[in-house]
Amino acid sequence: MIVKHLEAVIDTKDDIDTETWNARRLLLRKDGMGFSMHDTIIKEGTETLIWYRNHVEAVYCIEGEGEIELASGKVYPIRPGMLYALDGHEKHYLRARTQLRMVCVFNPPLTGSEVHDEDGVYPLVEENELEKRC
């Protein structure tokens, strides 16, 4: 059984803080669950280009307001209680009108160190690359 509390993750190597978002990585590949789970803050007034070319993601909003815009131009408002799943690797913009707090689940699971590249993509870290880092 795995038991963690958010307080134990904040200000550790599993608390990734960028210009537009802050992901507190609760479950990672090393935990062996087959997915990773993150408590993520999207910073107020920001826009982030994201494209999970190598992952699928499900996101559940628990706080704040914003929107997700797909490459097709379709815009979906985000507010507490809304879930969206990027099951087709959709390239999108994530915008936060107010600070958003989201629970995010990734498959394949993240290792913990990923940040978006210039295309908004998380790299797919292979097992042998992960072993070299440990």
TrEMBL record:
InterPro entries: Ectoine_synth, RmlC-like_jellyroll, RmlC_Cupin_sf
UniProt keywords, alphabetically: Lyase
Enzyme Commission code: 4.2.1.108
Keyword Lyase: yes
The keyword Hydrolase appears for this protein: no
Catalytic activity: (2S)-4-acetamido-2-aminobutanoate = L-ectoine + H2O
Pathway linked to the protein: Amine and polyamine biosynthesis; ectoine biosynthesis; L-ectoine from L-aspartate 4-semialdehyde: step 3/3
PANTHER family in the cross-refs: L-ECTOINE SYNTHASE, PTHR39289
Family from the record: Belongs to the ectoine synthase family.
Function summary: Catalyzes the circularization of gamma-N-acetyl-alpha,gamma-diaminobutyric acid (ADABA) to ectoine (1,4,5,6-tetrahydro-2-methyl-4-pyrimidine carboxylic acid), which is an excellent osmoprotectant.
Protein name as annotated: L-ectoine synthase
Organism: Paenibacillus solisilvae
